[in-house]
Each structure stands twice: as C-alpha cells, then as structure tokens.
Amino acid sequence: MELGRTGFVGRFKPLHEGAARALDALCEQASEAIIGIGSANKYNQRNPFTANEVRGMLDAYLAPRHTNYRIIEIPDFAHLPGMSDGAPWATHVRDAYGTLDTFVTGNPFVQRLLTPTYNIIHPSNIIEREKWIRLRATDVRIAMARGDGWEGLVPVEVATYLKERKLDERFRAEFGLATLGLLASGTPSEDAAQEQTHAQEVTAW
Question: Could you count the other beta carbons within 10 Å of the beta carbon of residue 132?
Fold first, then answer.
C-alpha cells in the first residue's frame, strides 16, 4: 500500500513492540511519516516520560531504520474547561499536520474527530497479519513498576535508552506504587478520565 504523506499519533510512554511494528509499517509505506507525540504537555502517572524523552525513544528505534519520518508534539486539552469534546484538539492536529494523504489510527474517538479532514486508515490495514501484536503501554508500565520483564515488551533500543538514563528507575520511584495501586483497585486515575481518548494507548494490530 502506498500511503503518501501520512500522519500518526500516539503517546509512546514507552514505545513498545506493538507500536514499533506499526511505525515500521508506516515508514515503509508512506512517502513521509509525520509522527505525533500525544499528550506532549503531560507528565504524570500515565505520561511518566517527557516529550523529549519520548522523542529520544522514537529516534533510538527509528533512526537506524528509516529516514522519511518527522516527529511533532501534540498536546492534550481535555483537562481544560470546555475542551473535553476534542474539537480544540482536532483543530490543533489539523494545523500541526497540514495537508495529508492519509491518517493512520485505530482510535475510534480520533477517527470521528479527524474523518471530516483526513482519509483514515486503521493500522490493521498496513501491518502484515503475522506481525500483529496486541499490547498496551499500560502493560509495559505495570511490568516496569514491578521491575520484572518489561525489557522484553519494548525494542532493544528503547530498553537501552531507558536503562542508560535510569528512566525506568525514576518511573518506579515516582509512579511505581501508584501504578500498582490502581491496578489492584481497578480504578482509573482522574487524569485518565480527563484525557478520555485523545491520545489513547497505541495498540498495533
């Protein structure tokens, strides 16, 4: 499939194997891939890495493999009064990405917001079926909070990036107990409810 100039958005906190496969397929099939870091203005339990750190993870994985991508930062506005319907976010996305041939997303909320502007394609349509992985960054953060096996859920380059900068240790110190506590209670955080689905976990299909 030839995608032309194509947009994609995800939080990538952290970039995991499923999202990495989606990005590989995106870069292989697009003439230019514009990758947005969602919730770039957030630093909290669900967003425990800064936009610059996410950019570092993306470059660590993508730069040795692809040259046709560009990274931009997409903030989340859902916590602001009167902006929870996603309309301001959609306007910002249109301004940030400009004219596109395609926008790839599996998020129904994003699909609804951007369908009037862009040709929407689901990730399952660009990833070979044998490469489909169902994996959420939430799963990686839970494993990281436990300090057990998270490295196997992310690309080697991402694991190296995080460990060399001790970002996994920082995550456990700042958010580890809260992450495991919410897992045990089954209660979503207030911030998760506010963000709704603007920059939902990327799931590669």
Answer: 15
